[in-house]
């Protein structure tokens, strides 16, 4: 089963995607992930009543506004914005597949006082099917994809695994 984490990691690092899929979960050890979650909880606390957690079993979304049909994702920094956008697009895609149509996404960066709207188009739906096929191919590989050093590595939860 492909999750939103698979989609995010596919856009960040195929090695990370493979390790995550094989059950090597390091995210809880990551200060960056912990801080991101805290920002999500603390930001816009005055608007908290608007948002509900949506848990469909195969999909859990922290902030869903059923009246406005809006999914919100809060991030610490826009440095990895392309992966954040892909994550929200995947939420919208899965919701649509579950029969919940017309949902829009909003990606918020409270520290930068910035936000952007995320929507689905036919082109993105097609892209997502391509991402899913590639993810299936990568996670089925017998060997962990080779280490390709990138700026993101220094904040990655798998840093110790890759560089010790
Ligand atoms: S430390 Fe770098 S190479 Fe290793 S999993 Fe993370 S992003 Fe990928």
TrEMBL record:
Protein keywords: Antiviral defense, Exonuclease, Hydrolase, Iron, Iron-sulfur, Manganese, Metal-binding, Nuclease
Domain DUF83: 5-163
Cofactor: Mg(2+); Mn(2+); iron-sulfur cluster
A GO BP entry: defense response to virus
Residues spanning the signal sequence: none
Pfam families: Cas_Cas4
GO MF annotations in UniProt: exonuclease activity; iron-sulfur cluster binding; metal ion binding
Enzyme Commission designation: 3.1.12.1
InterPro entries (alphabetical): CRISPR-assoc_prot_Cas4, Dna2/Cas4_DUF83, PDDEXK-like_dom_sf
Role of this protein: CRISPR (clustered regularly interspaced short palindromic repeat) is an adaptive immune system that provides protection against mobile genetic elements (viruses, transposable elements and conjugative plasmids). CRISPR clusters contain sequences complementary to antecedent mobile elements and target invading nucleic acids. CRISPR clusters are transcribed and processed into CRISPR RNA (crRNA).
Protein family according to the UniProt entry: Belongs to the CRISPR-associated exonuclease Cas4 family.
Name this protein carries in UniProt: CRISPR-associated exonuclease Cas4
Taxonomic classification: Bacteria, Pseudomonadati, Bacteroidota, Saprospiria, Saprospirales
């Amino acid at each position: 089963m492909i999750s939103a984490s698979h989609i995010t990691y596919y856009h960040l690092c195929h090695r990370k995607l493979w390790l995550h899929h094989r059950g090597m979960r390091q995210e809880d050890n990551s200060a960056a992930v912990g801080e991101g979650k805290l920002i999500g909880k603390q930001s816009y606390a005055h608007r908290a009543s608007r948002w509900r957690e949506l848990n469909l079993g195969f999909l859990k979304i922290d902030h869903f506004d059923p009246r406005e049909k809006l999914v919100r994702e809060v991030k610490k920094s826009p440095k990895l914005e392309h992966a954040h956008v892909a994550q929200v697009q995947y939420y919208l895609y899965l919701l649509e597949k579950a029969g919940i149509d017309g949902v829009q996404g909003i990606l918020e960066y409270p520290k930068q006082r910035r936000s952007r709207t995320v929507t689905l188009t036919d082109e993105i739906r097609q892209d997502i099917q391509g991402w899913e096929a590639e993810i299936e191919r990568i996670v089925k590989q017998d060997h962990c994809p080779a280490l390709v050093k990138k700026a993101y590595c220094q904040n990655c939860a798998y840093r110790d695994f890759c560089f010790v």
